[in-house]
Description:
The protein is mainly beta and 153 residues long. The chain has strands spanning 6-9, 12-26, 32-41, 56-63, 77-80, 94-96, 100-114, 117-126, 135-145, 149-150. The model has no long low-confidence stretch (mean pLDDT 94).
Amino acid sequence: MVEANRMQLGRFKFAIESGSFRRITQCWSGPGWDFNFSGRCINDDPDEPFFSLDGIVVYCDAAPLPLAKAADYTGIEIDLPGLYDEATGEPYFAIDLGESYEVSDATLRFAERDGGRYRIELSGVVSSSVFGSPAEFELSAWAEELPDHAYPV
């Protein structure tokens, strides 16, 4: 796994600047989880950059992850085969590079805790739409647990 607050996507490396997660208690698609990590590429070609100045966002919105609300998530690991939850049809994770791209076969792990923050390890495969063939990624970043949230339905 990459060092904390870093992400590797193919040959590209990113400095993850922020991370958060929260339980979604109500949404049009049902309860789920939001995760959000954002950062900037640190080894892009300055003359012909592949990534925009907006950087990268790895996220899920009210995703139906098989994760129960807990007092401590340390050590919990979840394997998410495929692109989406088969029961609901809702996607798990995506990567936004100015446009959203699917992530498949993700693994989410709460590696360690520091107060209300967790170092989260996330890996998976990004759609071939980004580089022309599927690309694996690994992320390790501190994320703050935010209060539960309900979206209007």
